[in-house]
Amino acid sequence: MRVNAYAAPAAGQPLAPTTIQRRDVGPNDVLIEIQYAGICHSDIHTVNGDWGPQPFPVVPGHEIVGVVTEVGSEVTGHQAGDRVGVGCMVNSCGACANCRNGDEQYCLKGMVGTYASEDRDGATTQGGYSTHVVVDAHFVLSIPDGIDPVAAAPLLCAGITTYSPLRRWGAGPGKKVAIVGLGGLGHMGVKLAHALGAEVTVLSQSLKKQEDGLRLGADHYYATSDTDTFEQLAGAFDLIVNTVSAPIDVDAYLGLLAVDGTLVNVGAPPEPLSLNVFSLISARRSYAGSMIGGISETQVMLDFCAEHHLGADVEVISADQINEAYERVLASDVRYRFVIDTATLV
Ligand code: NAP
Ligand code: ZN
């Protein structure tokens, strides 16, 4: 099946309309008619070549929501007409210790990314900036009725990427959590940490988005451009989730952790970050990383969001606005996720 899509032809080149081939629906596959695709900063890192060479042309998009139009003969969990989602991965070996443990994203043979990855049949995957996609049923999530589909799309990456570390490191009542960077991931981090019952602080470059941050569920809001912030908040947090797409001063943020506190990096700048070990030693602190979340955990997150009436704050765009949206994300001018209406992919 040939379908309309938007692709980056080469590193750093503007995206343009194209068509791509989707495979036939195999026995374990689900064919999805895509309705919405979120724009993640990872799409921009990828097509700009920040993370190294890519198999261009690349159709990005790993925050996909749509409706099932066909299922393979062996598929039992989804049927035509179901509202479903696909996130950052579309396959994994299914047999290694990590896959069996529900951590498909850490598959020992390498998870297959939704785009710019080599699938297990050797084909290069192409993502959600397209009208249809065929995905192995195990990697297809159910979107609960209670969530607006357009607001659900960003949950498939921004939602799970913040939910997973918040849960793992115990965000909840009595815990002080800081979210660094109020972009796509950050705004979901604030909503989710608040819904989990934590006391939430936003650490943003400026106070420009303070009103939004408080509305999204933050209890406190500080500007990181103000050096007083780092003195005032020294030793204050149990958990800090860093969503910044650029390098940060790791030592400065570690200094904001209480004894036994953890700084989790989900932001993925290409440059190496350095730290002074005394920032860790001096208060038994940890510095960690986390990548999206497993498939069953992603379903738990979607159900949690439905129960708590959470979705992303989105700005819906047409396909011809993708390049402009990329510029705005790079300028930290996103409130708080651009989502492509894929009906405009003509
Ligand atoms: P985004 O919407 O662009 O948000 C990033 C935010 O970081 C910006 O809104 C801005 O917030 C802050 N920021 C940007 N540049 C900065 C700078 N030079 N110094 C300080 N702060 C800066 O991006 P996103 O889609 O949320 O993604 C964020 C990062 O997470 C990207 O690197 C992405 O690749 C990565 N990511 C990782 C995973 C994972 O599994 N670990 C999953 C998805 C994305 P303020 O304006 O509030 O300061
Ligand atoms: Zn993403």
Run of helices and strands? EEEHEEEHEEEHHEHEHEHEHEHEHEHE
What structural class do the secondary elements suggest?
A: alpha/beta
Which superfamily, in CATH terms, is the homologous superfamily of the largest domain? Medium-chain alcohol dehydrogenases, catalytic domain
Question: Could you tell me the mean pLDDT?
Answer: 98
Q: Count of DSSP helices? A: 11
Bound compounds, each kind once, are:
NADP nicotinamide-adenine-dinucleotide phosphate, zinc ion
User: What is the helix fraction of residues, given as a range?
Assistant: 10-25%
Total separate domains: 2
Do you know the CATH architecture of the largest domain? Alpha-Beta Complex
State the end-to-end CA separation.
Answer: 15 Å
Briefly characterize the structure.
Helix content is 23%, strand content 26%. The protein has helices at 41-47, 97-100, 149-152, 158-168, 184-195, 210-216, 228-232, 250-254, 278-281, 295-307, 322-330, and strands at residues 2-7, 16-21, 29-38, 64-71, 83-86, 89-91, 112-113, 132-136, 141-142, 176-180, 199-204, 220-223, 237-242, 257-265, 286-289, 314-317, 337-341.
